[in-house]
Design a protein that fits this description.
Layout lengths: L4 E5 L4 H13 L5 E4 L7 H7 L3 H6 L1 E3 L2 H5 L4 E5 L10 E2 L1 H8 L7 E5 L8 H4 L4 E3 L12 H14 L14 H15 L10 H15 L3 H20 L1
Helix pairs in contact: 1-2, 1-7, 5-7, 8-9, 8-10
């Protein structure tokens, strides 16, 4: 069974946090991370957990998504809205099957705000998107229901990896690489454009799709360092 980390970004109601904890525990999941929760700890969350208080007790809070993802090798965002990002989109079953190849690595499922989900900047921190199919023009699911569906699919997934996959670079290492790219590119004349952030976002998506290992990240940073050194000599 694959048991990913569940990350809730800015949950607005403590009752939803408790309901998520209950949904997680029924499927054997216990790792919960909260990014800027509006109210937590809170007795409403404890009451709604209904026996899953241990999940709440072990939950950790973070001030931003980057910190919550720092040790994660794979992060999949949940959203039912179509996006312009060029990246993989999975059903819950497809996501579980994909992650079965990385079961010994740290996997995170990222859920957005109850009101408007995840923004594009937060989506850019992830390797792909999970969309839960619905059969109605109304696509909005309750937060705990979405968590229940995904944790069920991951609990039912096969534990035998289809292939032997290398250990991927964690999110923190990738963030250092993105920052290095940005710093280096800004020293190049052709990068002086009105909206360089669009190029950087596309670059981030490209690297996320490639899923580099730590050695590959170090290789890229070595190349960037050589460019930096050459620029300093000019």
């Amino acid at each position: 069974m694959i048991t990913p980390i569940i990350i809730l970004v800015e949950p607005s109601h403590p009752g939803n946090i408790g309901a998520v904890a209950r949904a997680m525990k029924t499927m054997g999941h216990h790792s919960l991370r909260l990014v800027n929760p509006k109210q937590f700890p809170d007795m409403t969350a404890t009451r709604r957990a209904a026996g899953a208080e241990d999940v709440l007790t072990q939950a950790t809070c973070y001030s931003n998504l980057d910190d919550a993802l720092s040790d994660c090798h794979i992060a999949l965002a949940t959203s039912n809205r179509p996006r312009t990002l060029q990246w993989p989109v999975y059903t819950p079953e497809e996501a579980a099957a994909y992650c079965s190849n990385y079961q010994n690595q740290s996997i995170a499922l990222v859920f957005g705000r109850e009101s408007n989900g995840l923004n594009n900047e937060e989506l850019n921190r992830c390797h792909g998107q999970i969309t839960i199919p619905t059969y109605s023009p109304y696509h909005s699911l309750n937060l705990s229901h979405a968590v229940q569906i995904l944790t069920y699919c991951f609990a039912q997934s096969k534990t035998e990896a289809l292939t032997t996959s290398p250990t991927l670079a964690p999110h923190e290492s990738l963030n250092h690489l993105y920052q290095h790219f940005e710093n280096t590119l800004k020293t190049l004349p052709h990068f002086n454009m009105p909206h360089p952030e669009h190029t950087l976002n596309r670059l981030r998506c490209l690297i996320n799709r490639a899923q580099p290992t730590e050695n590959e990240v170090n290789l890229l940073r070595g190349i960037l360092s050589a460019v930096d050194h050459h620029r300093m000599e000019d």
